[in-house]
């Protein structure tokens, strides 16, 4: 597929342009062609911790600035990132804000676009493949399946007040698949909540570094998952998937004849 065709970028005014770009869930092959073409047109790239630096090769002539968080340490506060976007746009015309997953799914992309527009910077958006759907899919976990789940919730585990989201309480009462991002720090509270709803036997999967080579997976029930997390040493960044759809993974393994998804994945690669 020809990647040489450049993405058309909206005309820039005197204040420059900000393009918010989704890098996908982690695997560098899951970035979109439009995102690559946009990076090739960048003068400055501001990128997060969940973005593989290898993707910066698509913007070889741009200034690269890391603005992410690692182990709770911030290279920049959000206010500083906002100001950096505007100042670089004024000086260098085209700023690409490269974010993991899709920037409009708990990525603060909307906030940054709004700030830029209020300060006279033109804005554009290139969506990315969201981790909330693709990470479970890579482990053969659908978020909906006939007879198992008719809908799904996508919830942040921790609010800006550092509390468990009230939506988790509502989701625990439903029969829908529940996908929780940024929830590992609240896992005990989540488990307790689902137990209170009589769902101790409900399947749950936790996927760390989803779609990447260092991916780790823990699968169990609400009653057993904390022990599984301890044994597997699962930590952030991780996604929590709760619901009957998690059983599909085990069914696929049984049908494939493999003991784990590594063998199944290798066989699937041959198809491509």
UniProtKB/TrEMBL annotation:
InterPro entries linked to this entry: 4pyrrol_Mease (IPR000878), 4pyrrol_Methylase_sf (IPR035996), 4pyrrole_Mease_sub1 (IPR014777), 4pyrrole_Mease_sub2 (IPR014776), CobA/CysG_C (IPR006366), Siro_Cobalamin_biosynth (IPR050161), Uropor_MeTrfase_CS (IPR003043)
Record key words, sorted: Methyltransferase, Porphyrin biosynthesis, S-adenosyl-L-methionine, Transferase
Keyword Transmembrane helix tagged: no
Tetrapyrrole methylase domain segment(s): 18-225
GO biological process: methylation; siroheme biosynthetic process
Alphabetized GO MF terms: uroporphyrin-III C-methyltransferase activity
Pfam families: TP_methylase (PF00590)
EC number per UniProt: 2.1.1.107
Keyword S-adenosyl-L-methionine listed: yes
NCBIfam families named in the record: cobA_cysG_Cterm, PRK06136.1
Protein name, per record: uroporphyrinogen-III C-methyltransferase
